[in-house]
Write a structure and sequence with these properties.
The complex is a heterodimer. Chain A is mainly alpha-helical. Helix content of chain A is 68%, strand content 0%. By secondary structure, chain B is of the alpha+beta class. In chain B, strands 1, 2, 3, 4, 5, 6, 7 and 8 form an 8-stranded antiparallel beta sheet that branches. Classes of the chains: A mainly alpha, B alpha+beta.
Chain lengths: 164, 241
């Protein structure tokens, strides 16, 4: 199997899932599209370093986080300090979400501080293990657990309208 | 064990070692508060997993496949790379400086940005000074652009990723019926004075003045022509600065 065939068989099927995660991380479709496009370009270039049979989605998320970090570094700021408002349009729920009563959850997720939202998205939407999330974000496993805990607590708070 | 809410999260996710798992399981038997947390986290996880994903933008998959072909990939086995690499590099260099390719690339980005609702601007203003200040903060000096040309008024701007260049300042103008994009192209393009073309149904002009290249894209030929007329003196002043 040549490089392009391998890319199309093992990597490309994750495009939709990565786009979904990037959309929730960035809060808008245009930035998500740029982010995912660059991620897949780098994945194609680095395909020799991907071991078939390991979790391709986790590997792609490691690349995606690096693309984000590089983009933030170019703008001389780190993801943790990003303003969640005032930078492009806020996340807008998909029409399906509005129709099926997910709007409150969409809104609560979009309002989470960046680090917690990223951890919850990687765990609960992308179903990565703590070890895979730790590798993607370059933080200890304990930090991953703590961020997921805090993220879920804030989501519960927002959804029930009371403090936990 | 006393209450440790973070470990309850790890327990819910099945991420604790066997000893800690047993300890949390025993604790949950006796602690209603931690049990409530665990149940709520499980319920939340189910809800999060059932969230519908956003629609995949039309053409993203095709664009990934197309773009990876335009960019040289990492070198595979040494024996196989020399010739293809040289060919790709030559093609890359040729494409980078190729005016028709740049025109197509700018038209593609114009269509992409203006098909978004709302427009993906990073700076919103109808005042040229505000837009210029924003770019200056990012380290880019722009020529002084008009606030309005005919019916088209300044809306905002951002940097756009292009296939032929790393990224370029992209300034948006809009009226009720049409749109014009002004791009400042930061790298060398093989172009004597001006390049006129049509790409993807848009009119495109590339103008050169003293090493600087500005691209204008619009759906209406007359709009693009009006922008060229308006920008000529601005570019002349800019080039002689």
């Amino acid at each position: 199997m040549d490089r392009d065939q391998r890319f199309e068989a093992e990597i490309l099927p994750h495009l939709r899932s990565l786009f979904g995660a990037a959309y929730r991380m960035t809060g808008n479709a245009h930035d998500a599209e740029d982010l995912v496009q660059e991620t897949f370009l780098r994945a194609h270039r680095a395909l020799d370093r991907f071991a078939t049979g390991t979790n391709a989605r986790a590997w792609l998320h490691t690349i995606l986080q690096r693309v984000r970090t590089d983009a933030f570094r170019r703008k001389k700021r780190r993801p943790e300090t990003v303003e969640l408002t005032g930078e492009g349009p806020a996340i807008r729920p998909a029409q399906d979400a509005l129709a099926s009563g997910h709007e409150d959850l969409e809104r609560a997720l979009a309002a989470l501080p960046e680090v917690f939202r990223t951890a919850v998205v990687l765990r609960d939407l992308q179903e990565l293990s703590y070890a895979e999330i730790a590798a993607a974000l370059s933080v200890p496993v304990g930090t991953v657990m703590s961020r997921i805990h805090r993220g879920r607590a804030l989501l519960r708070e927002a959804l029930t309208g009371r403090t936990t | 064990m006393s209450c440790d809410p973070e470990r309850v999260t790890g327990f819910v996710d099945g991420e604790l070692d066997p000893q800690a798992t047993a300890a949390v399981a025993a604790h949950l038997e006796t602690c209603p508060a931690c049990r409530t947390q665990a149940d709520a986290e499980r319920a939340l996880r189910v809800r999060l997993r059932s969230l519908p994903g956003p629609e995949l933008p039309a053409g993203l998959e095709a664009h990934v496949l197309e773009a990876k072909r335009l960019r040289p990939s990492a070198l595979p086995a040494a024996a196989r790379w020399a010739l293809p690499l040289a060919a790709v590099l030559l093609l890359g260099v040729w494409l980078r400086g190729n005016a028709p390719f740049l025109a197509w690339d700018l038209a593609r980005d114009h269509d992409k940005c203006f098909s978004r609702q709302p427009l993906p601007a990073k700076v919103w203003s109808d005042e040229p000074a505000v837009v210029a200040d924003w770019f200056r903060e990012q380290g880019t000096q722009l020529p002084s652009l008009p606030a309005q040309v005919g019916e088209l008024t300044l809306v905002g701007a951002r940097y756009c990723p292009l296939a032929s260049l790393a990224s370029a300042p992209h300034v948006y103008y809009a009226s009720s019926g049409s749109h014009v994009s002004v791009f400042v192209v930061p790298q060398g393009v093989r172009l004597d004075d001006r390049h006129v073309s049509h790409a993807r149904g848009d009119s495109v002009r590339l103008l050169r003045l003293e090493g600087e290249v500005v691209g204008i894209v619009g759906e209406q030929e007359a709009d693009v022509q009006a922008f060229e007329t308006a920008l000529r003196p601005v570019l002349a002043a800019w080039a002689s600065r």
